[in-house]
User: Fold Phosphatase from Candidatus Daviesbacteria bacterium GW2011_GWC2_40_12.
Amino acid sequence: MIKLVAFDWNGTIFSNTAAIYKSNKGNFKLLKLKEPTYNQFLKHYDVPVKKFYLAIGANEEEFDKKAKQIAQTFHIDYERRISKIRSRAFAKTLLDYLSKNTIRSVIFSNHIIESIKKQVKRLKMEKYFAGIIANSELTAALKGRCKKEKLKSYMDSRKFLPNETMIIGDTVEEIEIGKQLGVTSVAITHGNCATVRLKAAKPDYLISSLKEVIGIIKTLNN
Assistant:
């Protein structure tokens, strides 16, 4: 019986993959890197973001030295780009369904919490989410991952069991978290990760539309 659904934000609820790709371009120049194609971005993008940059040829020492500047360069450009970006198709349809069926929804993200709150408010989605689990430091996603620990803490404090929890995300990270925590993992395509990578990570479910989650939950909760 699914009682809690934890949504990744970037590329899952928020349709911002193109903005993330474009907002990294300033850092490709800063680090004197050959700009990857969009498909190369999807092939290598990861968190910690440092892992992505090393995969496309960045020097680790230079990256570490310029980490704060890299984070600032990205976020300044990114915030400028996202003012009119919408939620992914059927996001509100799914969230309405969850709300009407008393299934709690939360956001868990490597992104900055204040930025997420701003967009959730703009998109008039505040009523759907019981909480936003995210980062407060600008450079946090460059350095490491913390989504698993934060979600585990949330589940424990609210007494949600693994078999009552579902996570939905667009990257391999959420699939790995699902396996580590023993929760149901749903991977959605057309986000920040190539489909072939998602398939290789073997999520419990692989979907191309958020609308498909309704049928999955109906089956699991039947």
In short: The mean pLDDT is 96. The chain has two domains: 4-15+86-221, 17-83.
